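>> received
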Amino acid sequence: MSIISDLNISPDKKLGQNFLVDKNIIGVEIREADVSDKDTVLEIGAGYGALTLELAKVAKKVIAVELDSELAEILQDRLTDQNITNVEIIQGDILKVEIPPFDKCVANIPYQISSKIVELLGRLGKYSVLIMQREFADRLVAKPGEKNYSRISVLAQYHFDSKFLRKVGRKCFFPAPKIDSAIIRLLPKKIKAKVSDEAFFFKFVRAAFIHKNQKLWKAISHSKREMELDKDVLKKMGHELSLADVRVRTMDIDQLAKSSEEMLVLVGK
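>> returned
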């Protein structure tokens, strides 16, 4: 951890700062992303630049987004000292800043906003290789009927073909977190489930998965707040769905898409 000491960096617990310090894992992440000199790469949570500087060696350009203003200054100083000119630093919240065009995302994402980052990358339709909390990674790749299958599983698998690449141990970070991490690859899907209204689809999925162990009609009837309709109305609509008696946790994306389209018609009547 000498580089962190030399730079006089004190990780901020409130921001969930755990810096990746294992150079082998950094190398694995970049190789799995197949970064080339034709790629503009987005990095989320650049920190003091452990990954940034390595990306800069192989990418055409790196867009490094960092929330912590002090770390952003430290990173800029390091880039200047090493005469690295193909990195653009954006100091701010990744969920609020304007993101320039990019080809791939390679990042060790902040665990607190992992789901929002996956949603963002899904909307942008970008190939990504990410290090994230192991538990969250397991949820991304979970299949229907599995314990970890959840709303975020559906969201990720609607946008991407998600693949678990490898576990990343706690000792690869400083300070060491209390949980393990993992590297995940997200490959944008060329053909998605047939959904006419994505916003409604994700609203429907969110409502259904709050009660994922129940049958679909019952889960929907309990979702008054999410669906913004009266419980009795929802119960009636739920029974009219063709997959009404299927348990939510066993439904794949195509089944959920079909049910969402049926629900959209019922709501519009």
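>> The longest helix spans residues 253-268.
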